[in-house]
Amino acid sequence: MSFDVSSEAYTRFMGRYSEPLAVLFADLAQVRRGQRALDVGCGPGALTAELVSRLGSEAVCAVEPSEPFVAAVRRRCPGVDVRRAVAEHLPFGDGVFDVALAQLGGAFHE
Known about the structure:
Elements: H1 7-28, E1 37-40, H2 46-55, E2 60-64, H3 67-76, E3 81-84, E4 99-101
Parallel strand pairs: 1-2, 1-4, 2-3
Helix pairs in contact: 1-2
């Protein structure tokens, strides 16, 4: 699934949910310093930004199938390894992350 909208348009509509939810979601997942995290279907980066605030950019990676969102996350979270990919075909090996999260991800498929 890919969104054919600008990251700004998505954020105006979904930001009111995704920004506060990211904090609660990271709390629930017990994300803590020293871990490596993957944000799957990161959209424009609400959860990615929260993970960076807790772990640092060097400990966070993100994947997203929509190119406009990939570009938006790269701007929003410099230093994060952001790749265009779908959840079913993650471009990382096994055991790389301590936590993998997907917030508000829709159906994942190519």
